[in-house]
Amino acid sequence: MPRKPNSLLDRLLQKRAHIRWTRAARLAKDLDLHDLRGLRSEARHLRRALDRVLHIADARLAMPLMGADAIARPLGTDWAWRPDLWCGPVVPAGIASAENRAMLGDQVTIFHDCKVPELTLRQTRNTGEADIAPFGLRLDVFRFDGSFLSVVIDLPQGAAEGLRLNHLIRMDCVIEAEKPLAVFARLNVKHGPNTEQVVRALPPVQGGAPVEFDLAYTKINEKRVEKAWVDLIFEGPQMNQIMVRDLTFSRHPRAEI
Question: Tens of pLDDT along 43-102?
Fold first, then answer.
């Protein structure tokens, strides 16, 4: 384990170095050119080391940690989840000219009906101070000759187990786009041969806001629930870059009135 650079001796040396360079800066304008040239060379060597420390520190402190599990959990939450793509590296990490049903990892699939798919998907590393998820999803859409574009997230079995009509499923999604566009979220619940769907429009704000799917308005057969998935539907996505910086889901029972 490397020794931490904050021992008493280190702090004394750093204080002396700070005093020395503060004095050098004050006297630099009066030094002869030979001495000034030597001082400049020494300062450049020091700056390279300092720049390297700042580069590494800024990168590590700005990036969310892999495996981050900060998820909004309303009172009574009995299940919460962040898809793998937003937690750690997936394979493949990117797809150019993404065909219909192309997958990024095991849980995220793109659907469209373009004849010429001029769009790409890529997992990116989040680096903003406000980011919670370590990774995000970027869609670059150029000419778009299709009628629909959606990203489908398969929910794990835990989302379907014990699902009841009194449940609310909450989705927290942080989306940014170069140009404004309408985004809808559709929850699909398969029960037996039937599939119930609940559609919600995402608020038109950068940074996103939670939406909730109320299962009370569906006709699911609680005893036959098999699986669930969510479609993120983008309307008019052409010539746009869309960033899904975070995506989480949780489930909790509706408050009884």
Answer: 898 888 888 787 677 656 656 666 556 888 888 999 999 999 998 888 899 999 999 999
Q: What is the largest CA-CA distance in the chain?
A: 88
First to last CA, the chain: 57
Q: Kindly report whether the global pTM for this prediction surpasses the value 0.85.
A: no
Q: Count the alpha carbons within 13 Å of 127 in the hemisphere toward its beta carbon.
A: 9
Residues in the chain: 257
CB neighbours of 56 closer than 8 A, spacing ≥ 6? none
- Decide: helix, strand or coil at residue 40: helix
Residue type, 87: C
**Structure token digits, residue 87:** 């937690």
Q: How many CB atoms lie within 10 A of CB 37?
A: 11
What does the buried/exposed string (b/e) look like for 41-72 if buried means 16 or more CB atoms within 10 Å of the residue's CB? Answer: eeeeeeeeeeeeeeeeeeeeeebbeeebeebe
d(CA 79, CA 253): 11
How far is the C-alpha of 208 from the C-alpha of 172, rounded, in Å? 7
